[in-house]
Amino acid sequence: MASTFDYPAPPLPYYCDPQDLPGPLPTLEEIHGAEKVLPCMWSPEVKRIVVVRDLFVVKYGATPLYVDGNEGQALLVLRGVPTVPKLYAMYHQHGKLYLVMQHLPGTSLDGIWGGMSEGEKTDVIRQLRDILTTVRSLSPPPVFGSVACGPVAQRFFKTPRKDSAITGPFADEAAFHAAMGLNVEDEFLTRHLPLAMGRHKRVLTHGDLQRKNILAVEAPPLSIHGQLGGCGDNNSYNTEPRRFIISGIVDWEEAGWMPSYWEFASIFMYANWSDDWTYRFDQIVDAYVAEGSILMVVRRHFDGF
Predict the structure, then answer these.
(1) Which of 48, 152, 188, 208 is placed for a possible disulfide with 157 were both Cys, Cβ 3.0 to 4.6 Å?
(2) C-alpha angle with apex 218: 107 to 59, nearest 5 degrees?
(3) Under 8 Å between Cβ of 211 and 248
(4) Cα gap 89→215, rounded to integer Å
(5) Residue 98: what pLDDT?
(6) Residue 276: pLDDT band by 50, 70, 90 thresholds?
(7) What are phi and psi of 134, to 5 degrees?
(8) Separation of alpha carbons 139 and 177, rounded Å
(9) SS3 helix, strand, coil % of the chain, rounded to 5?
(10) Residues 265 and 301 placed together within one structural domain of the fold
């Protein structure tokens, strides 16, 4: 278990031990010229995610609005978890922050989920629960906030105002909940959210566990003798059921020390009831339906409907 003293933000620039690198760190020329670009909702002028030499994923952009150090700090805290990318470097250059991370194998779960059998989905869900149990078992610091105990990295707590009553970090959960009402200037929410939401443990939370942020690889088929199949023994394959192995959980931008309901509620408040991911999410982390329903109301205040 990590102690509460293991979570301060590292001084920048940060570079890992050279012995841990899979190859030389990519140069700025390589990064800016990379042709393999990963999906990003922002224009490339402000944020870009690229793959370099199939060894590194580099996320870079204007800081702190589009890229900040919270994700890198999360990767450092979770560096012992195999499904979390390693952080190789984090540094500023020309007003942009660069995160150089491990390139993990696998395909986005979003692209293969629909073709999985019920048994294959159940196996993937079990793996995810085991991973999240490990993440949530880390000893928490005494505040609700970002990974390095700074302002909360989730959008309900972001404001152009320099107001720690809204941004955090928060010494108690009541202040954490009141902050969401303060941010939308809703006196009713500010008064009632602390009581309605109750009290919860602080746990390390990913905050955006959509399928697109989960990678999986299909395990090689076994022969009828329980060994890996190879050339010349195609007739002995036993490919049912297939097995998918979780190879990575990425995009830790919103990670932080949050109330224990937040991981579930962050999916529930955007629930798509035509998608079985919503129905299965309570098998990954414990369900907090009441808290998730209240956050649906909070979300409407932020989204204006």
Answers:
(1) 152
(2) 25
(3) no
(4) 22
(5) 98
(6) very high
(7) -65, -45
(8) 22
(9) 35, 20, 45
(10) yes
pLDDT at 160 over 60: yes
Residues composing the chain:
305
Say if residue 114 is in the same domain as residue 75: no
Confidence of residue 230 (pLDDT cuts 50, 70, 90): low
Specify whether 47 is located in the same domain as 146. Answer: no
Instruction: Check the CA dihedral 45-47-51-57 and report its sign.
Output: positive
Supply the DSSP symbol for 305. Answer: -
The pLDDT of residue 20:
97
Same domain for 150 and 81:
no
CATH number at residue 17: 3.30.200
Rounded to the nearest angstrom, the gap between the alpha carbon of residue 270 and the centroid of all alpha carbons in its chain is: 16
- Residue 228 CB partners (closer than 8 Å, separation 6+): 220, 221, 222
Pair (57, 164) in one structural domain: no
User: Could you give the CA distance from residue 279 to residue 49 in angstroms, rounded to a whole number?
Assistant: 31
pLDDT 10s digits, 190-227 = 999 999 999 999 999 999 999 999 999 999 876 555 56
Last residue of a domain, one of 72, 102, 132: 102
Residues 82 and 154 in one domain: no
Tokens of 298: 């909070």
Nearest Cα residue to 253 out of 81, 49, 69, 47: 69
Provide the number of structural domains found in the chain.
2
CB atoms within 10 A of CB 288: 22
Domain identity same for 215 and 300: yes
Strand pairing partners for 52? 56
152: domain range?
Answer: 105-305
Q: What is the pLDDT of residues 53-66, one digit of tens each?
A: 999 999 999 988 88
103 residue type, one letter? H
Residue that is last in its domain, among 73, 102, 131 = 102
Same domain, 62 and 111: no
DSSP string across 259-293: ETTHHHHHHHTT--TTSHHHHHGGGTS---HHHHH
